[in-house]
UniProtKB/TrEMBL annotation:
UniProt keywords, alphabetically: Coiled coil, Plasmid
Organism: Tistrella mobilis (strain KA081020-065)
Domain of life: Bacteria
Annotated ranges, domain Pyridoxamine 5'-phosphate oxidase N-terminal: 39-156
Protein known as: Pyridoxine 5'-phosphate oxidase
Bias type Basic and acidic residues, positions: 220-229
């Protein structure tokens, strides 16, 4: 029985480190089966609701490179239970990820949901697809027909895993804060309206008790005459 993601991640050097640090038994005795090589509805919903992710590639000299990718929710498309795709938009034109993928198609993705402190890790093999190579694919990928789209990157799933929420600091976007604070703003507006109505009522009541309501022009003339006396 295997644990797909860790079967890839736990190289001999990693296992040697586990043994040296006294935790090898935690993984050697693992009896479960967690292939995690097909996305379920849970992963699909999580992926399509992201507006960003991080993708790591490796150069031919062995150096890793992590790139942030962002776009509207759903820009990373779930094609099926074993593949994803996104439109590669023109950026600073360094093409580091594209160059790395030409010699090593292995990628690692981190997808974060900061408010809920959830993290999905993905191992995949990347395939660069020209925009005109597969019209059906281009039609399915959001942003593939945008002016700055240069290619499609299709990701073939090898394994995924969910991380524990430990050490993930909750962060919120402006849109998330706006929605979360909507009840507070609505309540503040209600209270301000109530306060304005109460102030108006008190002013009206106080004026009536003092008899200093609105004066007519005749009242003004009588007061001027009394003042001159």
């Amino acid at each position: 029985m295997g644990y797909g993601f860790l079967d890839i991640a736990m190289t001999p050097a990693v296992r040697a480190a586990q043994d040296r640090l006294g935790v090898a038994h935690l993984w050697q005795d693992f009896k479960g089966h967690r292939a995690f090589d097909r996305f379920t509805d849970q992963e699909a919903a999580f992926i399509t609701s992201r507006d960003s992710f991080y993708m790591a590639t490796t150069s031919e000299t062995g150096w890793p490179y992590v790139q942030h990718r962002g776009g509207p929710q759903g820009f990373l498309t779930v094609l099926d239970d074993r593949s994803l795709a996104f439109a590669d938009q023109r950026g600073n034109r360094q093409y580091i990820s594209v160059g790395n993928l030409s010699t090593n198609d292995k990628v690692s993705l981190f997808l974060m949901d900061y408010p809920r402190r959830a993290r999905l890790k993905i191992y995949a093999l990347a395939e660069i697809v020209a925009l005109d190579a597969d019209p059906a694919l281009t039609a399915r990928v959001p942003g593939a027909t945008a002016p700055k789209a240069e290619r499609i990157i299709r990701l073939h799933l090898e394994a995924f895993d969910w991380n524990c929420p430990q050490y993930i600091t909750p962060r919120f976007t402006e849109a998330e804060l706006t929605e979360a604070l909507r009840p507070v703003r609505d309540r503040i507006a209600e209270l301000e309206a109530e306060n304005a109505a109460l102030r108006a009522a008190l002013q009206t009541q106080g004026g009536a008790e003092r008899g200093d309501g609105v004066l007519s022009p005749g009242d003004d003339a009588m007061r001027d005459e009394e003042w001159r006396r």
